[in-house]
Amino acid sequence: MTVQPSAAAPVRTTNGHRLTFLSAVRGEWIKLTTLRSTWWSIGIVAVLTIGIAVLIAQAVDIPGFEPIQAAVMPIQFTMLLAGILGAISVTGEYSTGMIRSTLAANPVRGSVLAAKALMVAAFMFVSSLLIFGAAALAVSFVVATRDQSVDWSDPSASYLPILVASLAMAVFSLLGVAFGFILRSGAGAIAATVGLLFVLPIVASMFGIAGEAWQWVSDAARYLPMAAAQSAIIPGTGLDEPVAYLTLACWVVAGLLGAWTVLRTRDA
Amino acid sequence: MIIAEGLTKRFGDKKAVQDVSFTVKPGSVTGFLGPNGAGKSTTMRLIVGLDRPTSGRTTIGGREYRRLTAPLTEVGVLLDAKAVHTGRSARNHLRAMAATHGIPSSRVDEVIELAGIGAVARKRAGKFSLGMGQRLGIASALLGDPHTLILDEPVNGLDPEGVRWVRQFVRHAASEGRTVLLSSHLMSEMAQTADHVIVMGRGRVLADAPLDELVRAWTRNTVRVRTPRAADLAAAVAGPDVEIVSVQPEVLDVVGLPAARIGDVAAERGIPLHELTPTTGSLEDAYLALTGDAVEYRTKEIS
Questions:
Q1: SS3 A192
Q2: Smallest CA–CA separation between B180 and chain A, in Å?
């Protein structure tokens, strides 16, 4: 067809649909909840948390051990799943090309990062709250056999550790999101997340027997995400509480700032 | 209206796009042609802000893509590669995209029907054939009922019915006053679809003209003549601007004379003609003539 059509009036779509941050978050919610990998991750977190919590509750019966600790201790394993869920929520978009659709729908890169971070963190927080809650319930059944109980009238021995542990899970998932945007590759982001959360603390602990000259390594290791999270969940270990919270906040801010720096300039 | 001004994109040492400027007008279909690696896809990615230009800028309706308040309702984008998470169903993919603009799910079902993927909408996109993936890409481009369409190889992998559907769809969109920029390697398809053509080669704009004008400028009209007295006719029509190629003993291709003139000359001399066929150049001929030196990945001529 080579006939020039007569000058037609330009179409103006006035359907009122607009891109807002809230709608971008809603898009992220649909993206997160419509992937099987999300539910697999949450399912494994649930099984691990409740299973390990029950085992600990059965095995540990020493004075001064609050039963609620058994419910939140599995975080040492499930933190990896939180980080991995965060990482693959981003790297899955890069490996499949979905990121191009995402950025075409929302060209404001900072908004994409914020919407995804908020959604992943909120999702992880709420899921963890439910899972730790279920674990606490399971633990209270176990310890009831020896006439102990989770004391729900004492916040620091009941829902406070659950709340803080859930918050920590959200923090770990955000670190995964940050590594995802920075590294883009699934394997790289997962390796970095596992390295930071799991491997570095082990490496640092090896310096614990290295003598005075290496004491600074152990001191620094207290500021690693998992160590800081433990100080926040069970006060009195490691860092002071406010310092622990501040440390976790710094990790999140640093991670997301790094992600934003990379995302805002790099070609998708 | 899409405007590119002095667009340059460098990947390391390689200049993928060099000082490209053009305007894509509403109310017509603009075809985007060029060999592989000519910079078409990069240019399209620059328009929608996926890549950052090294210099220059592009606007859609006077604004940069990243400044649009509702990108999906202004620009429908289909990029060459699949841009869908393989683990998500087609419908959920479209729902997620629609949600970012508060587009209701009734519109999602509408574009699913429109693109003809109703039967597979609940299947995971990773299981889709190339053609189905392409239809899903077109469906997401249409979600916001945009006034500008940027389609990179939309008919790639489509069956004949799908190819015709895309052609009719973009023609209809242009007739409604929408702006359409589409790339394709199928010249015959492009010839039927586009009003205007932009040809790129080695990162530069080689031509930017109405399709018929482009074909006229870059092809020659040939007249095929079949006659038992080929040599006599060749002698009779010969002239300084006339080129005669003997294709077969009794067949000549004459360039530079209209068919009527050749027929007249033959009649005057009593030379019998068994065939007199004027052939106009095609878009493909024009394209090949234009991009002859700009092809990055050349194939060997099969002899």
A1: helix
A2: 12
Q: Given this model, what pLDDT does residue B294 score?
A: 65
Which of B126, B145, B174 minimises the CB distance to A15?
A: B145
pLDDT for B225-234, tens place per residue? 999 999 999 9
Query: How far apart are the C-alpha atoms of B53 and B47, rounded to whole Å?
Result: 9
**What's the Cα-to-Cα distance from A7 to each of B32, B176, B209, B239, rounded to whole Å?**
21, 10, 17, 44
Asked whether residue A7 is assigned to any structural domain, the reply reads no
The helix, strand and coil proportions of chain B, stated in percent and rounded to the nearest 5, come to 35, 30, 35
Q: For B24-47, how does the pLDDT look when each residue is reduced to its tens digit (9 = 90+)?
A: 999 999 999 998 889 999 999 999
Compute and round to an integer the Cα radius of gyration of chain A.
22
Residues of A in contact with B43 (CB under 8 A): none
For B89, the 3-state DSSP assignment is strand
Q: Which residues contact A184 (CB under 8 A, 6 or more apart)?
A: A90, A91, A94
Q: CB of B112 within 8 A of CB of B94?
A: yes
Q: What is the pLDDT of residues B114-146, one digit of tens each?
A: 999 999 999 999 999 888 999 999 999 999 999
ipTM: 0.89
Comparing CA positions, the residue from B57, B26, B46 lying closest to residue B148 is: B26
By DSSP bridging, strand B28-33 and strand B148-152 are unpaired
Using a CB–CB cutoff of 8 Å, tell me whether B77 touches chain A. yes
Flag whether A160 is in a domain: yes
- Provide the pLDDT for residue B298: 63
Domain range holding A179? 21-265
A238 within a domain of the structure (yes/no) = yes
Report chain B's mean pLDDT, rounded to a whole number: 91
Question: Which of A13, A36, A101 shows the shortest C-beta gap to B97?
Answer: A101
Q: Which of B71, B92, B177 lies at the smallest CB-CB distance from A34?
A: B92
> Distances in Å between the alpha carbon of B194 and those of A30, B135, B197, B252?
37, 20, 7, 33
B window 240-299, beta carbon within 8 A of A: none
Strand order of the sheet with strand B55-60?
B14-24, B2-11, B55-60
Q: How many CB pairs under 8 A join A and B?
A: 155
Determine whether domain B220-279 maps to CATH 3.30.1660.10: no
Cα atoms in the Cβ-side hemisphere of radius 13 Å centred on B300: 2
Q: With CB atoms and an 8 Å threshold, state whether B100 touches A19.
A: yes
Q: State how many domains chain A has.
A: 1
> Which class is domain B2-211?
alpha beta
Domain boundaries, chain B: 2-211, 220-279
- Tens of pLDDT, residue by residue over B167-203, are 999 999 999 999 999 998 888 899 999 999 999 999 9
Res. A191 pLDDT band, cuts 50 70 90: very high
pTM comes to 0.88
How far is A25 from A31, CA to CA, in rounded Å? 10
